[in-house]
Amino acid sequence: MIALVIVISLYIVCSAVLLAFGAQCYILTILFLRKRKERVAFQRARMQYYYQNPDESRYPLVVTQLPMYNERQVAKRVIEAAAAMDYPRSRHEIQVLDDSTDETIGYVDEMVEQLRRSGHTISVIRRTDRTGFKAGALQNGLDFTNAEFIAIFDADFVPPVDFLRKAMAFFVDRPKLGLVQGRWTHLNKNSSLITRGQAMGIDGHFMIEQAARSWNGLFMNFNGTAGVFRRKAIETSGGWQHDTLTEDMDLSYRMQLADWETEYVPDLTVPAEIPEDINAFKNQQFRWAKGSIQTAIKIIPMLRRKKMSKFKFMQAVLHLTHYMVHPLMLILALLTMPVLYFVKVNLPIAWFVGIISCMILATSGPATMYMVAQHFIGNRMRKQFTLIPAMMLIGTGLAVNNGRAVIEALMKRSSPFYRTPKKGQSRGTQGYRPVKDVTCIIEIFIGLYCLASFQIFLGYTNFLVSPFLMLYASGFLFVGIISIVHFRKPGLIDFKLKVQDASEN
Predict the structure, then answer these.
(1) Full-model pTM
(2) Is 99 an active-site residue?
(3) Is residue 314 exposed (0-12), middle (13-18) or buried (19+ Cβ within 10 Å)?
(4) pLDDT score for 342
């Protein structure tokens, strides 16, 4: 009896927390909508500042840092794009922070020498000791420049020509502004159903979540790339640290706790690659999930010591812990069968309608946010609406992968670091391959378990959870089967980097 009470209590608590995360999507959407017109009008006007000011002496000195490790498919592309930005050459330098150990070294040296001959201030910084990985490379690069501002782009990003002029305009007459973050767009969005689903999720985060937080004075995070820091903000906040897998979120929170401001600009767009292999996507999500919880463990005690409103504090906690939805979903999937077996629910009609309404609202919260984001990005709503089922399947199916990441973070357990391979323009040629594991087998097993639960209780009076059992079954089976299909793809080179504290897109 005690065990049953514990199981039922755990089921109710997990359901309630998931409801809170679902409601959070509506809150952020409302916060975005109420500030959108005002902030977008201000930002569009501000971005023209340096295009109306030809005096180069008024331009601050900027260094663009390009951290990379074995990126032969995309190294030349990102270096060329950084050099092509129309910020005055006399006020712009480029650092290629190259920790590569393969033929990327030759590609980088060739491109850098070519750009030097054409008059660009560009250097390659290589380390013999890769301590800290990306965070260490970024921190090390600061020792080789006097620039007041630091722009950062990962190797699979392609900054547009006007990025720096537009981004730097926001720092004018704002001495406490520490970070300007741009919005990610997608080079290969239409490659597959997997990439289209990922693109919709990324769009929801960047168009709604980041804007809502920045524009309403809440904590927002640097996304690791496509942004510009004030150097003083980095240095006075403790610099780049590598004790979490998401050094970008860590630094941006410490910076804001030190009273530096942030500006998120959705019209400041930078295209990038999306992982096309589901296993590469899972590797990336595992890293982000584990790193976010590591950062939450580190930062939440600091938040508690900082004077702020309860609403701002709760928004920060929900932000830092949002990957908790995955282990919660996994717990619900596993507990549903025993709960349905032992608990026969006979609710009054009013309670029944109320609970159903709450469950629908919680489930549709993310979908609502994604569709609002698509509307303001300018995509056709009817076409995008058809991607919602794919988004739900992928999001549900990731519960095993990301749930394991969260548990490892909570247990402070170390694990290998699997990087996200990029394809660049070398479609169909030999490239880096994501690391695979047996998670897909567990996903299929749990999917079959949920399907069996659905079939067993279909037709009983447990109408509240039957649709969710079907969603769980479909999501786990979809992600598990696709993972096996991609697992068997031939012709690629295994690419495994067993390191612990690093983060890259």
Answers:
(1) 0.91
(2) yes
(3) middle
(4) 76
